[in-house]
Design a protein that fits this description.
The protein is mainly β and about 55 residues long. The protein is about 15% helix and about 35% strand. It is built from 1 helix and 3 strands, in the order E-E-H-E. It has a 3-stranded antiparallel beta sheet with strand order 2-1-3. A hairpin with a 5-residue loop joins strand 1 and strand 2. The radius of gyration is 12 Å and the shape is globular. The protein starts with a strand and ends in a 10-residue tail after the last strand. Bound molecules: zinc ion (ZN). Zinc ion binds next to loops.
């Protein structure tokens, strides 16, 4: 499981989805306007922390 943060391109709403990666695209829907036009902002995978220097 991982947390995926998205921002809706239509209404600028930010939202997070917690799911498996296979479900990510299906769940990347804006909760406010229902748009699929979202951009991913950040991925937090708790099992493998990102290094400070990317
Ligand atoms: Zn939206």
């Amino acid at each position: 499981m991982a947390v995926y943060e998205f921002r809706c391109k239509k209404c600028k709403r930010k939202f997070a989805v917690t799911c498996h990666i296979e479900e990510r695209d299906a769940k990347a829907v804006c909760p406010k306007c229902g748009s699929h036009e979202v951009e991913q902002k950040y991925t937090a995978d708790f099992s493998s922390p990102r290094p400070d220097k990317y």
